[in-house]
Write a structure and sequence with these properties.
The protein is an alpha+beta fold and 221 residues long. The chain is built from 10 helices and 4 strands. It has a 4-stranded antiparallel β-sheet with strand order 1-2-4-3, with helices on both faces. Helix 2 packs across helix 8.
Length: 221
């Protein structure tokens, strides 16, 4: 292996789902900005970025999240930073939505005729390829899948910086969304909770990483 190959493997060997964080160690602003930037620069289907990242710093909000987020409770006891990844709902992800039009014009800077072609292609994709219009949940699940790309890149960026992390699905989604709505944080017409993640520094060394072999999971055809 050359140095770059080894650096990549070493980062993935370092990364684990940290269950016990050291509460005395805080991630620097520069490092956490890099983690967030890795999420921002992540790829998404058609480049529509159907996500939003909530960085939870408020102690009272963490206390309210604690009993309804069982998978995050260890993180709340010591992680430096806690993030809730939101996915956009039908109001923003339907092929002719105002949000997508704005992305194409204001972010992607597409000429009108190109944007119209892209929307036509996206409409066909939603209707014919992935059957996303069968339900609002199908569209939300599609958007949620995009957030996991961003999440994966954030976890890997953290590992390169020797920062620990934990992806979290252990929470009651209805109760978490209700809490965030009541706190004036979540607009449930446009967003839903997809996944959570914590970042910080391990309090103890993890168990040795275990995975199936490449032969068991890769088929060359």
């Amino acid at each position: 292996m050359n140095n770059k190959n080894q650096e990549i493997i070493d980062a993935f060997q370092f990364r684990h789902a940290c269950k016990q964080f050291d509460p005395t160690k805080v991630i620097s602003k520069e490092d956490f900005d890099t983690i967030l930037e890795a999420g921002r620069l992540s790829p998404s289907s058609f480049g529509f970025e159907p996500w939003k990242f909530l960085v939870v710093q408020n102690t009272e909000l963490k206390e309210k999240l604690f009993p309804i987020s069982w998978g995050a409770q260890n993180s709340f006891k010591g992680a430096s930073h806690f993030v809730i990844l939101l996915a956009r709902k039908k109001a923003d992800t339907l092929y002719n939505s105002e949000y997508l039009t704005k992305i194409m014009s204001d972010v992607q800077n597409l000429p009108n005729e190109v944007a119209e072609q892209k929307i036509a292609a996206f409409e066909s994709f939603q209707k014919n390829d992935f059957n996303l219009l069968e339900s609002d949940r199908a569209l939300f699940d599609w958007a949620s899948k995009q957030t996991y790309i961003a999440l994966g890149n954030m976890l890997t960026a953290a590992a390169f910086l020797q920062i620990d992390s934990c992806p979290i699905e252990g929470f009651n989604i209805e109760k978490v969304e209700k809490l965030l709505q009541e706190e004036g944080i979540l607009d449930t017409e446009h967003f839903g909770v997809s996944v959570m993640a914590s970042f910080g520094y391990r309090a103890r060394e993890p168990h040795k990483k275990t995975r199936q072999s490449l032969d068991a999971m890769v088929q060359w055809i």
